[in-house]
Amino acid sequence: xxxxxxxxxxxxARATNxxxxxxxxxxxxxxxxxxxxxxxxxxxxxxxAQHICEQLSEGVPLRExxxxxxxxxxxxxxxxxxxxxxxxxAIARARDIGYDAIAEExxxxxxxxxxxxxxxxxxxxxxxxxxxxxxxxxxxxxxxLKLLAKFHPSKYGDRVGVHGVENAPPIQxxxxxxxxxxxxxxxxxxxxxxx
Length: 195
Hints:
Blueprint: H1 5-19, H2 46-57, H3 62-66, H4 74-83, H5 85-111, E1 115-122, E2 125-132, H6 134-151, H7 153-156, H8 177-194
Antiparallel strand pairs: 1-2
């Protein structure tokens, strides 16, 4: 059976390696090594973390930041936060500052008129008027305020709880019991009968 060209090359390579002086053809001794990491290497760098914190402090949502070029997925950022308490605290501070930026943006939107065209269809055709887009601005402000109330209810939410003055003793209640209630009802009945 004729030899193929690749088998011939393999034989020559073995013969050449074995004929070198001092070269061992046996396999090198295995040394204990660390287990190989599987998966994709992490994109985490301090610069990326700083960029994320800067954007969050400007009021930009995390998912929008992560859509940027060269940025990790938002799930990856949450994984980093779970592993690194310092990063988690930095992101929490940046978000808190970002909430204030969103509140300031609400004031800017409310104070700045936005002119736009409004078309009204009638029997004569379309009538176009240029006016302030008040409804659009109101929607923008309301949406941001509702999100702020959900994100940080103690600071931006509606306070509906009944409580006393801060650092004051709790409000005292008194159990009047049912006997006083019956006395009040009896007095009211007697007043209505006497009339």
